[in-house]
Inverse folding.
């Protein structure tokens, strides 16, 4: 794969690609990303306005009745585990991090419900730090189709991509692939004929 050509085509078509989770601060982004597991960003964005209106910061969320959190996030799926993660994470942010969402990988990974994907989302979009590449279902699928990786393991895929993509592009790159996956490189019926990457895709289906 010609990485420079790939980046050129992605920038031509997705130069403004950015996080689609609506948020006003790092805490809102963290909670929204936890909610986005096995759920669409569109659904999360419908749920969070009421959630944040009721519990706007870590202290309020830490003290929130778990039953009320569950009710507010129910439509995102897996709401029992997500509610526990959000409440316990909020409590730890208040007790250990003085009410501020951590701005480094190690501390973020110590929070319940936060793995590298979530940590990378927060670091890149809330703090402007490219410490890794977000690997969601779109990035995973497209990276394999473009032969950027041979693995199905998100952590291995991330390492493979980090070796290929310049670090200053890591945050934007994942958003560009996510937008490309939603628009053209779909899981079941990819729109290969109209795909802007078809000239370099080794697995094009036409």
């Amino acid at each position: 794969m010609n990485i420079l050509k790939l980046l050129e085509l992605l920038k031509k078509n997705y130069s403004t690609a950015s996080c689609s989770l609506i948020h006003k601060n790092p805490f809102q982004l963290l909670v929204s990303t936890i909610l986005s597991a096995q759920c669409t960003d569109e659904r999360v964005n419908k749920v969070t306005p009421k959630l944040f209106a009721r519990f706007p910061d870590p202290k309020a969320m830490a003290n929130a009745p778990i039953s009320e959190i569950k009710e507010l996030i129910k439509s995102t799926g897996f709401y029992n585990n997500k509610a526990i993660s959000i409440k316990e994470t909020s409590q730890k942010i208040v007790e250990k991090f003085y009410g501020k969402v951590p701005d480094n990988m190690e501390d973020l990974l110590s929070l319940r419900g936060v793995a590298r994907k979530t940590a990378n989302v927060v670091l890149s979009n809330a703090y402007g730090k490219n410490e890794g590449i977000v690997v969601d279902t779109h990035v995973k699928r497209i990276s394999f189709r473009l032969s950027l990786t041979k693995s199905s393991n998100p952590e291995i895929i991330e390492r493979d991509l980090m070796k290929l993509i310049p670090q200053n592009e890591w945050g934007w790159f994942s958003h560009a692939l996510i937008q490309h996956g939603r628009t053209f490189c779909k899981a079941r019926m990819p729109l290969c004929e109209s795909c802007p990457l078809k000239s370099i895709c080794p697995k094009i289906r036409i």
The chain is about 55% helix and 0% strand. The chain has two domains: 3-17+133-194, 26-127. Residues 22 and 45 are 6 Å apart (CA to CA).
